[in-house]
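Batch manifest, entry 17 of 40.
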Amino acid sequence: MKAHEEHRYFVKNANQFSVVKCENILYCIADKGYTILYTTEDEKYMISKSLTKFLSEVQYPYLIRISQSVLVNIQYVKHVHNKEKCVVLKNGEKLYYTLSYGELQAQIVNLHNNRKLSQDG
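Output type: structure tokens
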């Protein structure tokens, strides 16, 4: 992804239609067939789609699945704790992962390296 590209996701429900910049999504949680988006603006959106369906539609490379019910935007990851099996976000929130520590670490490093290459190129 080039630095100037901007991904957006359109959230609609019975009462409103919202445009969410994907770069502002902190994380997503699955909840009984729904996906709940949490953003950097302290907003929360409920989408009537599974986490898998949402992830395939959004096509945002920095959102990675860390467990069956959690996606995280790696741009906001501050620490990954092996012993606690959690990811700590820059805002201090903790999200628990079920991947192996090595697999999660490799995904984060790979995406950061690809991001750096695309910005340099």
